[in-house]
Amino acid sequence: MSAHKYELMFIANPELDERGLTKLTEQYLDIVTKEGGSIDGTDYWGRRKMAYEIAGKNEGNYVVVNYTADPATSAELDRLLNLNESVIRTKILRKDAE
Question: Superkingdom of this entry's organism (predicted)?
Fold first, then answer.
């Protein structure tokens, strides 16, 4: 399988402090690198107000990660993020799809 470029955006619990958010993010980025993928950039947007309430929360910590991995790794990353109670919402976009 060939690798593709992806953009992951997730919204984490607003109660997480900076250290907790970094640890949470790195835990998932390890999945990508262990499977032979690469992290191309991580952008912490910080705590922002959400457009609408999700799971009783009006704010969340936004993180955007650009990475390269095969589709199976990306699917597993999405699955694991959705199992974590600290992650409110996730979205993974394939960047190189033309």
Answer: Bacteria
* Residues 80, 37: Cα–Cα separation, whole Å: 16
Q: How far is CA 93 from the centre of its chain?
A: 11
Residues 30 and 58: beta-carbon distance below 8 Å: no
pTM, entire model: 0.91
Is 91 within 8 Å of 9 (Cβ atoms)? yes
The per-residue pLDDT for 96 is: 77
Answer whether 93's CB lies under 8 Å from 5's CB.
no
- Location of structure tokens 């960047």: 95
For the chain, list residues with pLDDT below 70: 1, 97-98
Where in the chain are the domains? 12-57
